[in-house]
Amino acid sequence: MVSAAAAQFAGAPHEAVDLLSGYRAAFLGAALIGLLASAVALVFVRGKRKLTEVPIG
Amino acid sequence: MPQTLGLLGAALGLLAVFLIIQATSREPLLPLRLFRAPGLAAGNLVMALLGAAWIPLWFFLNLYLQSVLQLTVFGLGLALLPMTLVIMVFMVKLTGPLIGRFGVKPVMVTGLLALSGALGLLATIPADRSYLVSVLPASLIAALGMSLAYIPVTMTGMGGAAPEDTGLASGLINTTYQVGSALGLA
Fold first, then answer.
1. Contact residues, B window 140-169, toward A, CB-based 8 Å cutoff
2. How far is it, in rounded angstroms, from Cα B104 to Cα B163?
3. B96 CB near a chain A CB, below 8 Å?
4. DSSP chain A
5. Touching check for A53 and chain B: CB below 8 Å?
6. What is the pTM of this model?
7. Predicted ipTM?
8. Is A27 an 8 Å CB contact of chain B?
9. pLDDT (tens place) for every residue of chain B, 186 residues total
10. Chain B CB within 8 Å of residue A19 CB
């Protein structure tokens, strides 16, 4: 099923299509940053600290 | 773009001045010795990256829902409500027990990977699907990832600070999150 938005984009000017591509690229960039965060956490964060070891307040 | 880079350069210059003042002042606002606390630097780095991944998700998801799926402002609010509910419930009920059982690092990495995966799904987002198919599943996975990652990252950033420095460490990690969010969005 093609939504009204898709129909709009099917005949859309280049600017609208660029808009969707821009959103996708932004999400992809954020995904890569998230992966980088995972890698940093894996490498630099110490292992098995438990909840009770952290001071409260 | 040149304006963004120029402002970024100016911000870096001001940051350098701030660090010099903190290093030479008798009573610095942010004593640099704080960064010697175990885990603080790593926690802040991960927090900056978490903000840089999370806030663009909200920003561009809002734009996508409005400009592509043509949701009204009210519909947009309703569409994002499930994410908020997942974050609220999981942070309160699930993250603590999971950290208690598995430790900080596994929960943090799992959350960050879930968030990355959800963003990867959104990177393939089409123009011809409904909210339920193309947005809701990915957004719920992202919310789950954020729920799992945020508390462990905060704990890592504060856990090594001396008791008298926990207020400073807390302020620092919150600031780091804001700065990371702004940089990620830029």
1. 145, 149, 153, 155-156, 158-159, 161, 163, 166
2. 20
3. yes
4. ---HHHHHHHT--HHHHHHHHHHHHHHHHHHHHHHHHHHHHHHHS-S---GGGSPP-
5. yes
6. 0.82
7. 0.84
8. yes
9. 788 889 889 999 999 999 999 999 988 888 888 888 888 899 999 999 999 999 999 999 999 998 888 889 999 999 999 999 999 999 999 999 999 999 999 999 999 999 999 999 999 988 776 888 889 999 999 999 999 999 999 999 888 888 888 888 999 999 999 999 998 988
10. yes
